[in-house]
Amino acid sequence: MASWQIRSWLSNTIRRVASCSLSTQAALPKNTGAAFSLIRSQPSQYIVASLAGRKYLLAPRDLLTVPHLKDVRVGDVLALDDIHEVGSRDYTLRGDPVISPSHVKVQATVVEHTKGKMEVVFKKKRRKGYQKTIKNKHPYTRLRIGSIEFPESSTS
């Protein structure tokens, strides 16, 4: 086949796939409560939450490693309040900027406090006899994400 035939065949194939995907879109829910019920009915959900100044994509039973959290002990349960997005395979609901904690409840359990791998920084100045080795291990906290709960009273 010539290159123009391959390009023509590819463009026709892409056009067919695009038209098929446009005709199979799901209907949009009318309000937030309906959106939550659609997401609740899906087999698996995820959230995008802020923790320690960063956003993380989380699913139930995930193990999350974050920079060291002070004032928490192993076994403590933390409530994730800054949830930016809730979704499933077919539906996504984004907050503006966050979703109210009354609509979505997610808890994380502190599993352990640990340190990262040894980082070695070697500094040297040529011809001066100056050599310096700096070793460091960053502290981390590991969290286990609990189930994502949607209270039934979310009908806004």
Question: What do you see in this structure?
Answer:
Helices cover 20% and strands 45% of the residues. The chain is built from two helices and ten strands; from the N terminus they run H-H-E-E-E-E-E-E-E-E-E-E. The longest helix has 21 residues, at 3-23. The radius of gyration is 24 Å and the shape is flat. The relative contact order is 0.20.
Helical fraction equals 10-25%
Helix/strand-derived category reads alpha+beta
SSE ordering: HHEEEEEEEEEE
Adjacency order of strands in the biggest sheet: 2-1-5-6
Overall geometry: flat
Taken as a percent bin, the fraction of beta residues is 35-45%
Please, how many helices? 2
End-to-end CA span: 58 Å
Mean pLDDT, all residues:
87
Poorly predicted regions = none
Give the tally of β-strands. 10
Radius of gyration: 24 Å
Q: Please give the largest β-sheet.
A: 4 strands, antiparallel
